Amino acid sequence: MIVSELALRNWARLPQRDRLISDLTMLGLEVDGVEAVAGEFNNVVVGEVVECGQHPNADKLRVTKVNVGNGELLDIVCGAPNCRQGLKVCVAKVGAVLPGNFQIKAAELRGQPSHGMLCSYSELGINIEADGIIELPANAPVGADVREYLQLDDVAIEIGLTANRADCLSQLGVARDLAAKYQHPTKFVDFKAELFAKASERVSHNETFPVELVDDQACPAYASRVINNVNVQAKTPEWMVQFLARVGVRSIDPIVDITNFVLHDLGHPMHAFDKANLNEKIVIRPANAGEKIVLLSGETAELNDNTLVIADAKGPIALAGIFGGENSGINPQTKDIVLECAHFAPLAIVNRARQYGLHTDASHRYERGVDPQMLLVAMERATQLVLEICGGEAGPVNLVGQIPSNTKTITLNHKLIEEIAGISYSRQQVKDILLGLGCQVEVDEVANIYTVTTPSWRFDLEIPEDLVEEVVRIHGYENIPTAAPEARLSMRQFNEADLPLNRVKDVLINRDFQEVVTYSFVEPKLQSLFHPNAETLDLPNPISVEMSQMRLSLFTNLYSTLAYNLKRQQKRVRIFETGLTFVPNAQAELGVSQELVLAGLVAGETLPETWNHKSQAVDFFHLKGIVEDIIAITASDVTFAPAQVAGFHPGQTAQIILNGEVVGVIGKVHPALAKPFGVSGDAYMFELKANVFAKTHVPQVQPVSKFPSNKRDIALIVQNEVNVGDLIIAARKAGSELLADVHLFDLFTGAPLAEGTKSVALTLTITAADRTLEDAETNAEMTRVVEALASEFGAVLREI
Question: Residue 618: which of 601, 606, 634 has the closest Cα?
Fold first, then answer.
């Protein structure tokens, strides 16, 4: 955003430049750059070309006599094609110094004396594109200093605005903020009163152009006005050309210049149509998918049905709030125009320009919010300027729809201000600041509460904290006293049973895993492979199609990360991630359940390639062992049960169950998913809810037995459907306090076993802390376990 110091001073009484620039930054309107609007020069005055004739010895030169005041006529040779008799010009007299330390001296050009120079914009260091010398208005006073006459002691100030400060996207908006800082009113109230006092005088006929408002949610109000017999060949006034140049806009033609001036001065976008090219009526409606429009830039845009358009009876004539169409635009033959000024809802414009590769001054403002109460002011100001510059006869304003008030009422407790700011403010200070910002304020002095009605141009003021920020900002961050912080230390409450998530991560890192961090957004097509037919949370304004859904699990991004690494010749991949999943749930806050989970993936070899290691591919049991290592540091007693899970191999997938609740899943990724993701080879993944790791073991001191332990191996024949984990759990429950451990050491299937059965070999560790066990005690413990397993699972002790 670029503002002109001179334009700001036209709206408000302001201090010296240095303080002004400093205060802009302190107000949060950070100044990124300050640039003079003209170079350094002197002794350049307004002159009038009294005579202009052809140079006798040069086809491209003219010999002129120029009046520079006090009856003085200077002979000056000029090569500009636009030099002519009667023209008011900028004359650098002999002795003048122009930008670049260029000195003007008396000279003789092709035999003709020249005592000065007629200047162009570039020769005075003014950033305006124009052919030839500067053409000043006919009423420019001869002999006047050009720097003073064109008000060139001005600077263009570039401000870096945050997205919430749409109210400062104009000269008036920035001036309002400064006026609040200095507790001076702006000139806008008087300007508006004078503008509307003469509004009726501008109307000279009753013609209006028909307007149909189809979508009043996207466009609550639309104003138009017919102005006939305008002269589009008129010259844009020098003051307006200078203004536009200082805010970074090129002068085009008087009608476009006027709408651009209103946009940058008052902050409200406008557009002008050639009435002769409009058919029957103007219609504000959503576009029909596939409709096309040729834009003012000459490009053809094929429209989506989410785009609001301004159309006539034949089709679209402009992208609403973004860009005008070529066929209805102003051209040199235009005689009658239709001025339009509309209020569009930000959500109807946001991201629409990007869809068509556009970014315009209008869309930039409408996306962030435009003051609806400025609509008619902008219309009257533009009408005033059109009549003054281009002539014509104006009709009445045709307002369709209703202008929204856009104000909010906020209750602010004085105590909240001091709690947040950390300093004290008087009630009068707070009231004066809020009034200076354009708010209406009622004070309850007993309850110390302010009832604040925000102005229509402040879209960002919604909650009491916003008002607190405004009070502190306007009063000045630099006025907040500095104080050394006091550090009061206290012991952190720590429960030994609490398990930090980093401890769980350490287990994986020690197993050669790398932590990854991926986006919470995923590609819908890929996510549907892991979660077919699942309800998802779709983003209304995604960064891209590939990031348009919130993730239901971490599987999609982990598997995509594997594909990314495989394409870069990383064959052995071991990664994990912790993050939130987002599952639609009507009963949850904001309609979505957010749950922290831990997920991991392994692919390739179990160990890095070495000279003394035989390569072995990862498998289900390799990953299961890793998951058991993780769970081993917790107090969780989990079990694994075969499961059918979408996206995973049906024969190598299990649910992880804690206290009867499924808390995770582990398994081999289904081979059918490899091609859509671009993966080659097998991969195994797991996911666990973070609440599984909430608690850990608290070590209990126990004496180490000095007596030997006995180990007994038993081989049991069971049905294939029986889970080994269930056998181990049942064995531990069946044993007495003498049974110290049960673990699997062999699993066998095939002949000579019967079909559908398997042999499970378990080692029982039996010991006592106070004595050496007799064989009878050991055998009794083993018998107790075998009988329990036979009763519960039909296990038969296998004979050797």
Answer: 606
CATH architecture under which domain 408-477 falls? 2-Layer Sandwich (3.30)
Residue pointed to by tokens 């001005």: 154
Q: How far apart are CA 524 and CA 347, in angstroms?
A: 24
Among 565, 566, 519, 568, CA closest to 546:
519
Edge to edge, the sheet with strand 409-413 lists 409-413, 449-453, 440-444
Residue pointed to by tokens 């899970």? 645
pLDDT tens figures, 271-327? 999 999 999 899 999 999 889 999 888 888 889 889 999 999 899 999 999 999 888
The percentage of residues in the chain with a pLDDT greater than 90, rounded to a whole number, is 64
Domains of the chain: which residue ranges? Answer: 2-37+156-185, 42-153, 190-401, 408-477, 501-693, 710-797
What is the CA angle 327-330-333, rounded to 5? 100
Question: pLDDT digits over 89-113, tens only?
Answer: 999 999 999 999 999 999 888 888 8
The CATH architecture of the domain made up of 2-37+156-185 is 2-Layer Sandwich (3.30)
Domain 501-693 has CATH 3.30.930.10: yes
Backbone angles phi, psi at 380, to 5 degrees: -70, -40
Mean pLDDT on 675-704: 86
Position 636 confidence tier, pLDDT thresholds 50, 70, 90:
low
Tokens of 111: 């035999």
Annotated binding site for Mg(2+): 460, 466, 469-470
42-153 against 408-477: fold identical: no
**Binding-site positions:** 460, 466, 469-470
Q: Is 494 helix (H, G, I), strand (E, B) or coil?
A: coil
Which CATH superfamily includes the segment(s) 190-401? Phenylalanyl-trna Synthetase, Chain B, domain 3 (3.50.40.10)
Report the CATH number of the 42-153 domain: 2.40.50.140
Assign 114 to helix, strand or coil: strand
